[in-house]
Write a structure and sequence with these properties.
188 residues, alpha+beta, Cytochrome C3, three-stranded mixed beta sheet, binds heme C
């Protein structure tokens, strides 16, 4: 499979500091700061499980399983892309026998990024976890540039923010999405 790249047109953008302030409000903490201090909370202390429940003591502690995975500094401190690719986990891809798993190895370069590096959206990584219908045509139209995305809306939980910051790596990780410099684009 070859890798194709599609570019999108550019429009003016907001200054980066506005977004940082916005992010500080959303996350309630200093953006970009590694949260390595407390690794995984015990189930009895996570404020999600009832510490008085008899299930505590029967359930596996998150740290027991997650500390064996490729580490990350943010989110639940596992690099899930590596965990899947390096065979640490092998989730069942389908429930129904006749479902076809579709992988797509193409990248979309998104250029309305103001002073930030360009965003490279990798289809392959996403289709290893998700079905086309998780994104198309609901969250994104399957046409480069057809969906007007911006960072404020992402921070408010739309577009990429439907998953990033919720179930996939957090929005404080600017460089994982904004990964291509403009000079790199020119030399392609
Ligand atoms: C996690 C979300 C997500 C998933 C899953 C996903 N896509 Fe996309 N797709 C996007 C985004 C984002 C764009 C860029 C949209 C834009 O530029 O406005 C895009 C663009 C496209 C495009 C147009 C750009 C191009 O490269 O030609 C096609 C075609 C496409 N997707 C097909 C698919 C197919 C087929 C699948 C499943 C195998 C799939 N997509 C899975 C998010 C997704
Ligand atoms: C999950 C991926 C992702 C992460 C993480 C992310 N961005 Fe973005 N960002 C985008 C996308 C997608 C766009 C829209 C690009 C387009 O439409 O061409 C964007 C656009 C922007 C823009 C352009 C102006 C605007 O309002 O849209 C700026 C500036 C920006 N991001 C800053 C940041 C900063 C700072 C961070 C880290 C605190 C960050 N981004 C993290 C995906 C991301
Ligand atoms: C439907 C859910 C969903 C949406 C929407 C989504 N992502 Fe993701 N993304 C994931 C998952 C799941 C992973 C893999 C697990 C992880 O890294 O947390 C991932 C991983 C990534 C990676 C990591 C690739 C690597 O090799 O490490 C990048 C970059 C990324 N997403 C960018 C984006 C951008 C940019 C957008 C919006 C244009 C977006 N994603 C929208 C779910 C989503």
């Amino acid at each position: 499979m070859g890798t194709a790249a599609t570019s999108r047109p550019t429009t003016p953008a907001f200054p980066v500091w506005v977004l940082w302030s916005c992010l500080a409000l959303v996350s309630g903490s200093a953006p970009g700061q590694p949260q390595g201090a407390e690794r995984w909370k015990l189930l009895s202390d996570d404020r999600l499980h009832d510490p008085a429940s008899p299930a505590i003591g029967v359930l596996q502690e998150p740290g027991e399983a997650l500390s064996l995975m490729p580490p990350d500094l943010v989110g639940n401190k596992v690099n899930w892309v590596r965990a899947l690719r390096e065979g640490y986990i092998a989730p069942r891809a389908k429930v129904l026998e006749d479902t076809t798993v579709k992988l797509l190895d193409s990248k979309v370069i998104m250029m309305n990024t103001g002073e930030m590096p360009l965003v490279v959206f990798p289809h392959l990584t996403h289709t290893e976890w998700l079905d086309c219908s998780n994104c198309h045509e609901g969250i994104f139209k399957s046409e480069a540039g057809a969906t007007p995305v911006n960072m404020f809306q992402i921070l408010q939980g739309r577009y990429c923010g439907r998953c990033h910051g919720a179930v996939s790596f957090p929005l404080t990780e600017c460089r994982r999405c904004h990964s291509m410099s403009r000079s790199e684009l020119k030399t392609r």
